[in-house]
Automatic annotation (TrEMBL), chain A:
It comes from Streptomyces albiflavescens. This is Uncharacterized protein. It comes from the Bacteria.
TrEMBL record, chain B:
It comes from the Bacteria. It comes from Streptomyces albiflavescens. This is Uncharacterized protein.
Length: 242, 131
């Protein structure tokens, strides 16, 4: 479907289970996924652009769908920073959007994103990169469990050889957070987190948390008698019998 | 104000420049390329250069002495590789958001000036992010 849309130079939005791709003249200009932090989160993480700056930019240029251009022209960010960050987030969201889907894909013609074009990516390049990324993860550590499950640290102590960026990921692993939560907390592209988690899994430092067992009926778990009390009673009885 | 393309085109004005790229070293993706690549394939070159950049950025042996605060930033400035006919210069780009990006410049050894290229590439990396 995507290659057909590219061939007919379509403009609109492709809606898939795990993300959306915006096309303009058959090229991908923007991508979003619930699994990845958006451009706003990435730029807010180190205080480059706060919520107020985004509101101002969307109010000024959202209707014209030129918010990206406005941010650069008004001096809030450099053109290079916008291109690097946006391109990174586009490939990041596309990796998840183009992943396996259990719902039908839909395309809405004509829709455009308020950010406006930054650096359009050909559909073929995006699809090729998505396949390459899947293979990269598989080469590092073939078990995909850490991609989606809640994560926990193993009992192995992390040695001094854990690189800084992996250490930051490891620090956010708490038995509850998933890879997507860790990415959001760090303001870092989600695929980067998947790569670091596979490396940490390969080093035996992180595993997927086991699924919670169903709760056992409380009748079965209540002890009929406290074993310690029973032991103490037997000891007392034995002492008294001496 | 330079974007990715302007930055790469400027890199190509250096004496002996054969090709240049902006690469993400976590994924191995080339975010932008210009000129030639060794073997004619920018994507393969980017993936291979990314492996090398990752090792340099992640191993503490190459970090500056303890005490300097490089938290979450790459501790290495650049990597230089030379062979019989060319130089490769990899310059890490410090960004104002979380990233793992470097500039890769491929120079012909006969015409290239490594010292000049190293200084210029550092300036370009700074301008790319700060404008």
């Amino acid at each position: 479907m995507l290659s057909r849309l590219a061939a007919e130079r379509a403009t609109g939005v492709l809606l898939r289970e795990r993300g959306t791709l915006y096309l303009a003249d058959g090229e991908v200009v923007h991508a979003e996924s619930p699994a990845t932090p958006g451009l706003d989160v990435l730029f807010a993480a180190r205080g480059v652009l706060d919520a107020e700056a985004w509101r101002e930019a969307v109010a000024a240029a959202g209707a014209r769908r030129r918010v990206g251009r406005f941010l650069v022209d008004s001096g809030r960010i450099s053109k290079g920073a916008l291109e690097l960050c946006h391109l990174g987030s586009l490939y990041d969201a596309a990796y998840f959007a183009l992943g396996p889907s259990s719902t039908p894909t839909r395309f809405r013609y004509g829709a455009a994103h308020w950010l406006g074009p930054v650096r359009p990516v050909p559909v073929a390049a995006l699809e090729r990169e998505t396949v390459r990324r899947r293979e990269l993860l598989h080469r590092i550590w073939p078990d995909p469990a850490t991609d989606t499950a809640p994560l926990m640290r193993s009992r192995l102590a992390a040695g001094p050889s854990v690189p800084l960026r992996q250490e930051a990921v490891l620090g956010r692993v708490d038995g509850v957070r998933t890879a997507a939560d860790v990415s959001l907390a760090l303001g870092r592209p989600a695929f980067h987190t998947l790569v670091d988690l596979r490396r940490l899994a390969a080093a035996g430092l992180v595993t997927a948390a086991p699924a919670q067992p169903p709760p056992v009926p409380s009748v079965l778990t209540q002890p009929s008698d406290d074993p310690d009390v029973a032991l103490l009673r037997r000891l007392r009885d034995a002492l008294e019998a001496l | 104000m330079p974007g990715i393309d302007e930055c790469l085109l400027e890199a190509m004005t250096l004496p002996g420049a054969r090709g240049a790229a902006v690469v993400d070293w976590t994924s191995g993706l080339a975010l932008g390329t210009v000129g030639d690549a060794p073997g004619g394939d920018h994507e393969t070159t980017a993936a291979e250069a990314a492996e090398l950049a990752r090792l340099a950025a992640e191993h503490r042996a190459f970090a500056p002495a303890a005490g300097s605060d490089w938290s979450e930033e790459t501790p290495v400035e650049d990597l230089i590789i030379s062979n019989r006919d060319s130089y490769h210069l990899l310059r890490f780009v410090r960004t104002t958001f979380d990233s793992s990006v470097f500039l890769h410049l491929w120079l012909a050894r006969s015409e290239g000036n490594l010292a000049l290229a190293r200084i210029r590439l550092g300036e370009m990396a700074g301008r790319l992010v700060l404008g």
